[in-house]
Design brief:
This protein has 16 helices and twelve strands. By secondary structure, the protein is of the alpha/beta class.
Length: about 375
């Protein structure tokens, strides 16, 4: 069986979700060939760097314009046409001829749009791509129209709320599986009962870019939380790493970390931005979340959902270190949030992806 996972490096969330899916599929089907392809880089090999740089500037320095575009397209219709569609379609056809997959999984809406459009053209030309199964894996707690395409065979969605929203937009319930957002097996297998405790443990992260407070008073307050060891992961933010490292006796400062699950396993609470991947890593680990104030529309959707579910808290725009202290020292609030995370986990169809792939494998054997 051959599976092609198409994604884009618009931030690392889509890429990480793709790698987690690959790990999951190879764990279930060790003889399968599972390939992850960055579609924009394949289509625009000489321009993808500038393409992604523009995106990163938009979400860091042009947030208001980015959010305005997101809200405007949210009012649009499903099955929208992607930018540079003609070029993408030609290169996608080339890519499919190269890999000849039995199924395609898209973890970015652009990829889902292009595959769906290619299947539509195949229907008119009676081409073999018509029967190529397309799975769309939604990587935020959102049902934005850009994710919805008429030639998608199955949607892998993060929550029951997203499933219901897709159904309201006309997607058949049989085509929707509530799987959560894919995370690595190391997060999925964490168990609260196995965690070793050495006082309270607080984990603070700012994503790969290390978008964390620069105010030293924030860290002074964390350092003074009684009986608490704080680990701060600054990611690729080397300037902040140098600024903070070695300053406080109860705070350990790390740079980019590969094995984040080892720190999450020990944590009583995580303070982080509300990205979809980190949100579900924390849910599987049952570690309550305190979210930075969200700035992008996708993050606002994620933060609203985690607050509604009672699995964490969302900071306001003011000083938040004191609130972090109060929550962390309230074992009852933390235990209640962790219990709600366990309920969310039980709602997930965790084996749905494997079952769908198994059905495809059987159908290929029959064919």
């Amino acid at each position: 069986m051959k599976i092609l996972i198409l994604t884009g490096k618009f931030g690392m969330g889509h890429w990480n979700a793709s790698q987690s899916l690959r790990q999951q599929l190879l764990g279930r089907f060790p003889d399968a060939v599972v390939t992850v392809e960055d579609l924009p880089t394949y289509v625009l090999p000489n321009a993808s760097g500038a393409f992604y740089k523009f995106f990163h500037l938009a979400v860091t320095r042009g947030r208001s314009l980015f959010n305005a575009y997101y809200r405007l397209t949210a009012l649009g219709h499903a099955d929208a046409r992607a930018p540079l569609e003609g070029l993408f379609l030609d290169k996608l056809a080339e890519l499919l001829e190269r890999y000849r997959p039995d199924a395609v999984i898209a973890t970015h809406p652009l990829c889902a749009q292009i595959v769906s459009r290619l299947k539509e053209e195949a229907a008119r030309k009676e081409h073999c791509y018509l029967d190529l199964p397309l799975f769309t894996c939604i990587t935020d707690v959102s049902s934005h129209p850009e994710w919805i395409n008429r030639n998608t065979d199955c949607y892998l969605v993060p929550s029951l709320e997203v499933k219901e929203s897709l159904m309201e937009k006309g997607v058949l319930p049989a085509r929707i599986c509530v799987t959560g957002i894919p995370v690595r097996e190391e997060f999925r297998s964490l168990s609260r009962e196995r965690m070793s405790k050495n006082g309270r443990q607080l984990l603070v992260m700012g994503g790969g870019l290390g978008l964390l407070p620069t105010d030293e008073g924030f860290y002074e307050t964390l350092n003074r939380i009684p009986g608490t060891h704080t680990t701060i992961i600054t990611g690729c933010n080397k300037k902040l790493f140098r600024q903070l490292k070695g300053r406080w006796e109860n705070i350990e400062v790390l740079g980019y970390v590969e094995r984040v699950w080892e720190y999450l396993e020990e944590a009583d609470m995580i303070v982080t931005k509300p990205g979809g991947i980190t949100l579900f890593e924390s849910i599987f680990a049952q570690v309550p979340i305190y979210s930075w104030p969200p700035v992008l529309c996708q993050e606002c959707n994620n933060a609203r959902w985690l607050a509604d579910k009672g699995i964490g808290w969302v900071a306001g725009q003011g000083e938040c270190a004191q609130e972090i202290r109060e929550i962390l020292m309230d074992e009852g609030r933390l235990a209640q949030a962790a219990a709600r995370m366990a309920r969310v986990k039980r709602q997930l169809e965790v084996d749905a992806v494997n079952q769908l792939m198994e059905a495809i494998a059987v159908s290929q054997e029959v064919a």
